[in-house]
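User: Please predict the structure of the protein below. I'd like the answer in structure-token form so I can feed it into my own downstream comparison script.

Assistant: Understood. Taking the following sequence of 219 residues as input:
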Amino acid sequence: MADQHQGFAAYCEAIYELAEDEVDVIQARIADRLGVSRPAVSEMVRRMTAEGLVRVDGTIQLTSDGVALAERIVRRHRLAERFLTDVLELSWADAHRQANRWEHVIDESVEAAMDRILGRPTTCPHGNPIPGSDYHETAAVPLNGLDVGAGFTVTRIPEELEFTPGVLDFLEENTVLPGRNGVLTASSPDGSVTVSIDERVVGLGTFASSRILVLPAPA
């Protein structure tokens, strides 16, 4: 039963994060996110529907029970990432991998202690909101939605980029991090951009530049 519950939790987390990134949640996307076969997803979705965790209506949606389970796991994952980066000084990519394990073993007392020690953070290191925190939505826009010459502050690296191999390492190495200020110096019709950030010139393809969220600098 414990393995089944952990399986449900992993699926609820994936569905929650896909929806959070405004991606239509279909079986193929869940399979890609979790690295499992589509028949396996189909069977799990059937079981989760019977358990009252999801409903299927064109797309796969969490019920209130599914959201509650997902938010508990996502909260622990993002708190773990904060602890691993802020306290243990692991890299983004290492913290993300380790947090995938920690999220299933952290209990309520450890969760509360981590939250207290970290100063009740509202986001993970990548700027994604921690469920149950005092997070407030900002008027962020995609990086490639800015005009050339516009200044910005990086606010959020969505989960979709966290799961793309090599992206977190690249962004961290090039200081494309939440809180850093930069200027968009060039833009291509295909949506790729070049930015200047921390005295570095960084090129970002359309996949990343359309998903990284920034706050435009005041005009």
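That's the full token string. The domain at 141-216 is CATH 2.30.30.90 (SH3 type barrels.).
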